[in-house]
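User: Before I run my own analysis I want an independent prediction to cross-check against. Here's the chain; please return only the structure tokens and, at the end, one sentence I can use as a sanity check.
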Amino acid sequence: MPSSETIAKPTRKRAPEFKKELKVLAVVTTFILILEAISRILAPQLDYDRQHIHQFPTIVKELKSKPDNAPKVLFLGNSLMRRIDLDAIQNEFDENDLLHSAKVTPVGTNIVDWTYLYKRYFEDTETHPDIIIVGFVRHHIADEEVIKIRRLGHHFLAADDQPQIWEEDLAGDIHRQTQTSLSHYSSLIGDQPEHQLGMLYVTIPSYRAGVRLNNDYVAEAAERHAKETPSIPTTVFRLKRFIVMAKQHNVEVWFVPMPQPEHYDIPQLAIDTVIDSGMKWVDARNIEGITEADFSDGYHLGDSGTIKFTQWMAKKLHQHLEKDNK
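Assistant: Structure tokens:
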């Protein structure tokens, strides 16, 4: 056993100098700030969805600038509503100048995203359409739907609304509360999954095709699970919250369950909540003439389906406006 004389003891000389520690910390901080700057520069170009999200302020500004001589209509939703043809809608009304329209449809979003998105970009700028047309399938308006907190925190959630989401949507989940708030202030965190995917797409051949195939397997498994699992009681807190927000600004909301190749059910409680609140339930699940051939991938409308859905939507708007003008 070594004697006490040979055991190295901490001394002032062996301890790292505080200045060196500060230098290391400064280097790390600078590196992170550089990555954050690069992330913010690249973010609008990551994919179509990010390009669309970064256009929100412009979309809102243009809608606000439209004259009040005609109703302002906002199409709100995700990739299911994305292909609605605004030009075709507008052409149906231009002769009499009866309508102004805009579209906000970030991919993979649900009613939680739409609520905070509306509060941040429309409510905070005092820009309110006369009609919001929300396109969805069942799970998009369900309280059970999973929240994608990184993108929500960075792109949809205003700083002032953080306490609300902590209390109402992430109650007791400190980890997700913190991650949502960090995402709000950092593109590096908020857009992290897309940066990672971008690098993998470039460096690994066929990675994109593999991701799509995996997503198909996951979707099929989820569909089988949903069919095999008994129905559970559904709550409509998120749906009610969205309706209350719209009512506060005298905005009429049309809830439009979107067409799909196979019919799907929606809880009667959700339908009753919409109708009893005075909002409109405009069912697009069984539009006459839309068949499986009108879908591009078994989920999204293809070119022919888009034309049929747009024409159907324009007809519904015509009927509504003609009724109001009588």
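Sanity check: The two ends are 102 Å apart (CA to CA).
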